[in-house]
Amino acid sequence: MRIALGIEYDGTDFLGWQRLSHGRTVQGELERALSAVAAQPVTVNCAGRTDAGVHGRCQVVHFDTTAQRALRGWVLGGCANLPPGVAVLWAQEVPEAFHARFSARSRRYRYTILNRPVRAALDARYVTWERQPLDAGRMHAAAQALLGEHDFSAFRAVSCQASHPRREMLAIGVRREGEQVIVEVEANAFLHHMVRNIVGSLLPVGRGERPVEWMAELLAGRDREVAGPTAPATGLTFIGPRYEAHWGLPAEVSQ
After folding, report:
1. One fold for both 2-103 and 106-238?
2. What is the tens place of the pLDDT at every residue in 43-89?
3. What is the pTM of this model?
4. Which CATH class is domain 2-103?
5. Residues 6+ apart with CB under 8 A from 209
6. Where are the domains of the chain?
7. In 10 A of CB 229, how many CB atoms?
8. What CATH class does 106-238 carry?
9. What is residue 27's three-state secondary structure?
10. For the segment 161-208, what is each residue's pLDDT rounded down to a tens digit?
11. Per the residue annotation, which of 51, 135, 151, 223 is the catalytic one?
12. CA nearest 187: which of 227, 245, 143, 128?
């Protein structure tokens, strides 16, 4: 039997998603919790790995098991065995052909910037602080150069292990909501640190230090050393993947 789960997590206190031989990771805690529910070892596959400090609004995973449990049991039992920063949102039986990573048509991220003179207190774990005024309109206009399929080497971390740098940016937008500037992106897949490097390059545009055309120049130049710095992990949330409707998953991850 193959089960898909929706997972929500606060990434602040974890060393990222992927299981490690040392330190706490979201995958490690989830597999420990599900193994307790199943009374047998459980290994999960996810839609998209996240780095240390990055949050997940609806990460999707799948796992195979012979344990007979009600779907409600995977949700409640998983939550009961997980630390406070991780929760199972839903469980769904899926066909064996379904794969959390390979069946996903796209992935979505949101980056939230608190743009005011004073740092955050209540939201400090979930936003990045920028004290200088940002022009969200300029940032949005600059970001549109990234739409479509491109070589995103300018926004690729040196440590990235992807086989090639080409990705298709399906949507990208920047808007202001009160004191927050929000960057939302959707692509077929992402390179390591790609979203954070894009945001790090949009910030100088928003501050007026670079022209709107700079993002197009960076994309064409394919030089990571010329682009802006990597934005902090705080502020970045993996909103979740999108799947075709025939898989029967909840609406938040279907299209």
Report:
1. yes
2. 999 999 999 999 999 999 999 999 999 999 999 999 999 999 999 99
3. 0.95
4. alpha beta
5. none
6. 2-103, 106-238
7. 12
8. alpha beta
9. helix
10. 888 999 999 999 999 999 999 999 999 999 999 999 999 999 999 999
11. 51
12. 143
